[in-house]
Amino acid sequence: MRIGITCYPTYGGSGVVATELGIELAQRGHQVHFISYSQPIRLTEAHPNIHYHEVEVPQYPLFEYPPYDLALATRMAEVAELYDLDLLHVHYAIPHSVSAMLARQMLACDRVRGKSRRLPYITTLHGTDITLVGLDRSYLPITRFSIQQSNGVTAISRYLKQKTLEEFSITTPIDVIYNFVNCDIYRRDPAAKAHRAEWARDDERLLVHLSNFRPVKRVTDCIEIFDRLLKKIPARLLMIGDGPDRVKAEWLAKQKGIHDRVVFLGKQDRVHEKLAIADALLLPSEMESFGLAALEAMACEAVPIATNVGGVPEVIDHGQTGFMCEAGAVDEMARCAIEVLGDDARLREMGKAARFEAQARFCTTRIIPKYEEFYRGVLEREP
């Protein structure tokens, strides 16, 4: 198949999933065309089946806010015609599903050249496009309409599907296709002991946090949890990512006198290399529609200590493959961390169980075929 993929190319779950999906599809022989305003950050290696098409947004004094959605729709239509795309797959409803809808209509009604072609589009809902931004009255009607106009809709968790049906009052069928992880890349690396030594001594535990540092991620809670943990267990914390709350977390670590044990690494391309040497992952988010970071940690046998929110319970089995606590319950999360990190046998047992769960339910070999089947179903339905 020839598939156009549009996502936000920045550091966030929807862009990561979309990019990894495109890479996996390309490796399975499909032609994948990324259409976005910049190259996705995880698209780091060349592949003969992967193509990138930049969306250029004109800057005119008339436009206080340049119309990216219109430029995107135009580029989608151009790429679809030039490369004979079978379908578009857009990730994050706003504004990508609207742009895809316009591109489909443009190609179906091209009376100037006296021809038309079909271009079905699929919308994958990722989280805040539904639970936060999409519910804003400025966007809700158009978001609802573009979702209902989609030729197929998927959500990354049962929680998000139900939330969409309730909040948007739509009757459009939504298929749940979970996020995934490449278990051949995300795995424990016994040979990485020397790499681990760069960050922690043999007698120290190594923890990781991975996010875009938005307020919903509650990154300062990571510092609070880690501060409590340090009173019982020697450890180091790697903070991977960047965003508006990074400075708050840095200052809190400084105030608590633990800044020498917390390393802020900023955005990283090869996060699997850090997760592969970590003992645990802190994910104290206020909301997670799935919890991709937790899944990636599980595949690497790093035990996730997360919050019991959104779609996280669909990923973590509390007490078996990780821990879940209420959002903001830093004392309880610290207790869970101390419990598992203070018991080497329990830590290894839970890490193995987490890895097994990731392989059994969320590995690319299980999830990517579901997307391929979904694509075929959409193409067969369309006249």
Describe this protein with a few key phrases.
383 residues, alpha/beta, Rossmann fold, 2 domains, seven-stranded parallel β-sheet, six-stranded parallel β-sheet, elongated
Give a description of the structure.
This protein has 383 residues and is an alpha/beta fold. It has two domains: 197 residues, Glycogen Phosphorylase B (Rossmann fold); 173 residues, 3-Layer(aba) Sandwich (Rossmann fold). 42% of the residues lie in helices and 16% in strands. The chain is built from 14 helices and 13 strands. The strands form two sheets. It has a seven-stranded parallel β-sheet, sandwiched between helices. A six-stranded parallel β-sheet has the order 10-9-8-11-12-13, with helices on both faces. The protein is elongated.
- Overall morphology: elongated
Radius of gyration: 22 Å
How is the CATH topology of the largest domain named? Answer: Rossmann fold
The total count of helices amounts to 14
Major beta-sheet overview:
7 strands, parallel
- Name the CATH class of the largest domain: Alpha Beta
Helix percentage: 40-55%
Instruction: Characterize the quaternary organization of these chains.
Output: single chain
The gist of it:
The protein is an alpha/beta fold and 383 residues long.
